[in-house]
Amino acid sequence: MSGSEIPRSSFEKPSLYLLSLLLNPDGAASGQSIPSDFGTLTFRKMDLLQERGRIPQLVLDYELAGGSFQAVYFGHVSPFKLHRTELKHNGAVVKHVFSEAAGGHIHMETALPPSGLPQGLDWKIVAGSLCLWRACVGLPSGCDKSLGKYFSKMKSVSRYQWTNDRFEIQDSNILETWSSDIPCGEAECINFSIFFANGLIAGISF
Length: 206
Known about the structure:
The chain has three helices and twelve strands, in the order αββββββββααββββ. By secondary structure, it is of the alpha+beta class. The strands form three sheets. Strands 1-2-3-4-5-6 form a six-stranded antiparallel sheet. β11 (about 185-195) and β12 (about 200-205) form a beta hairpin. α2 (about 125-140) runs antiparallel to α3 (about 145-155). The longest helix is centred in the middle third of the chain and has 16 residues, at about 125-140.
């Protein structure tokens, strides 16, 4: 499959899978294989680019046979925060810009709300809060200590506090459940759970 034939959503998924690996309490993800639609990736490093007056950019670098892959996020790994990607493979270069600091550019498939949301719940706020929380918990396992402190400080920005109710690896699938008490409409509060499979939002319950 050539780079031009790969769906844009395929470029969103590797770093979301990586984050699930980093959340594993049994070990870090450095050197582990990460599946993708353009070949098996190996995570190498992450860096934070900071420039006064601009949103910090988190850069994640991967290797694959015959090339490399890079994903850049605004601040942290989240389906709502992907800025751009670049795939270099067998001499070809495929670039995508997903969003700019000033606003959205390409609607991201991995950020779509699941069906059956309770009335009055703002999906972007709730899911964005959890994505920030997960990133701040997991990303320090894949970076140096100074960058880890950056994520620890960011965690306090999350609108809600989340509990990891489940982390399990079944065959090649990474399964997670996170929950929090969320104000919703006229109801005082609901216990809201979000399920992940391989780093992608797979369902909800409340």
